[in-house]
Amino acid sequence: TLKTLSLRSNQIGNQGAQSIANALAQNRILMELNLSKNKIGNDGVAPFIKVLQKHRSLAKIDFYGNPIDKYMAKAIRIVMLRTSSISYVILNSKCVGTRKVQHLADALVSIKTLKIVELKNNQLGDDGVRCIIQALANSQMLTVLNLQTNLITSAGILDLVAMLHTLPKISKLDLSCNKIGDEGAKHIANLLETNTTLNVINLHRNEIGSDGAQYLSDVLIHNQTLKKLGMSFNKSNDCCILEFLVAIRSNSAIVVTLDNKQIEEKFTQQLANALKNNTSVRTLNLNSNKMNDQCLGYLVDTLKNHKGITSLNLDNNQITDEGAQYLCEIMKNNSKLKILSFRSNKIGNEGSRMIVNALINNTTLEKLYPTQHQYGVAETICAIRNGDVPNRIHLEYKRIEDIDLQYLCHSLRYNMRITTINLNNNKIGDIGAQHITDILRNNTNITELLLHSNSISDEGAKYLASALKDNKTLMKLNLYRNKIGINGAKSFAEALSKNTTILEIDLRRNESGYAAIVGAIIELRNNKTLTYLHLDDCNINSQDIQLLATALKDNQTLTSLDLRNNTIGDNGVQILCDVLRNNKTLTTLGLAYNKIGSDGAHYLYNTFQNRNVDTALQTLSLHGNESALCAMVEVFLTSSRDQIRTEINLAEKRIGDKEMQFLVDVLRNNTVLTTF
User: Fold this and answer.
1) Among residues 135, 225, 304, 547, which is most buried (max CB within 10 A)?
2) Which domains does the chain have, with CATH numbers?
């Protein structure tokens, strides 16, 4: 009985091969058939595939050296393994065209032990997929099916889903780079309603929109089997979010980043559910997502009780004061959270204060990053508490109001590291000043306190002055441009009468010029090296000058005194001249725009005209006053004393009869002037 037949190296073509296949169908004894090195093509090999499905005796067939395609050679090898335990078929980028697909399907139909089938990039189309799934219907061991890049639409997916329902072990399905769209996603969602074996599905690049993402999202609320869902590069951003949601609920990732995903409320709910049972997440980034208060509300129950998250980033969203309440809940209840960032949101002052209040009772938060230019108090309190602040606190232009200072002062009360507090250009009033006194009374390390451009009035000044009475450390106090009047200034004068520590106190440009003078007097008394005194534009009148004169009486260090843009008048000038008559150090005097008349000009000339070269005024500013004589005095008093003046230019000085008489008197004995 014939068991081996060799027809090697002949001229057999497709027709001859067809005849051999027909004969083989009736033969049940032949075990080996050698048809190598003939002229058999794909059409000649195709009949053997169907025959061999039922032929059990033939164990070896050889088509080597024939003009057949690789996919056909693969099909023959597959069908020859019909009696063995073949577990995988990988045929990528080879099986293009309906006829070729059918040959492959014919080869697969009898294989019941397949576990992995990879047919990616074969342009199967919906018809080709139908052929394949029909052939795989009996593959009850199949766990992996890869149909990536095969031009499959929703129609092909409908047939595929019907077959997948019958496979008890399928766990991984790759349909990426097809065209299933929203309708195809709906079919996949229907599959997931009952399927309990699939844990990986890849749907990258499938033209899926928001509707398709919603179909899948709805079913995944109840399907807990799926561990990984690939959804990137689809039409809707919702797809990417859904991919992350599935990954989060089953992944052990430490960092989860969902930045720039435009998360909507419906997905926020699912994110909360996904995080609820995943305690491995340590960092959650939800930046730039247009998340509103409602979205944060869905997350709050999960986040306030989460045992793993230590860093929560919510920058550049749309959280308002209402959402700030949710942030407070998280801060009050979550003892694991170390870093909280919500920069560039829409939280106002009310929300900021709620956060600060929550921070007071939170002992675990280490870093807080609020919206830029706001909430500096909250950020600073957190930094102070955790020792993450240098010796200077800068909180200028932070819109800080009185109520905000209560919390800051509480944190600073016993902090011995901070030496400088800058609160310039805020909205601090008298109540805020009262809170600041708490720092000054208890903190013995503060040397510099800056409150420039706030709203502190006499009442606030009274509080501050009282705290400074026995303070031995503060060296600089800046209250420039507040609302302090005479009474507030008197409070400082009385409280600091014996305080020699403060070297610089700035009370300029308050409501009363008296305040500026008090500050200047204290500086002159305590700072024995002070050379420059700025008192320009401070509402100083002649009565205020009387107080300053007392302080200047014995001063021999001041070289420059600037009193421009005040209202000292002739009386004020006379007071100054009396006290400066014997002064040997002052070389610069600014008296522009002070309503000085001719009498004041005469006082100045008579006081300073006889100074020698070393003590003469080098700079005298008298422009903008009431008398033109001031301009002439300025010229004569600032002329160089070590040179002979031969020319004087008094053009456009508004010279009248009085001024001319003054000029005549001054030049009466002059013998060197040649040009006038």
Assistant:
1) 135
2) 1-67 (3.80.10.10), 256-389 (3.80.10.10), 391-527 (3.80.10.10), 528-676 (3.80.10.10)
First-to-final CA distance of the chain = 148
Burial 387-416 (b: 16+ CB within 10 A, else e): eebeeebbbeebbbbbebbbbbbebbeebe
SS3 of residue 23 by DSSP: helix
What Rg value do the Cα atoms of the chain yield, rounded? 47
Q: In angstroms, rounded to a whole number, what is the distance separating the alpha carbons of residues 479 and 451?
A: 5
- H-type alpha helices, 251-292: 265-276
Q: 567: which residues sit within 8 A by CB, 6+ positions away?
A: 539, 540, 541, 542, 594, 595
pLDDT tens column, 308-357 = 999 999 999 999 999 999 999 999 999 999 999 999 999 987 888 888 88
Q: To which H or E segment does residue 132 belong?
A: helix 125-135
Which alpha helices (DSSP H) does 221-365 contain, by range? 237-250, 265-276, 293-305, 321-333, 349-360
Beta carbons of 242 and 229 less than 8 angstroms apart = yes
CB 475 within 8 A of CB 503: yes
Predicted model pTM: 0.63
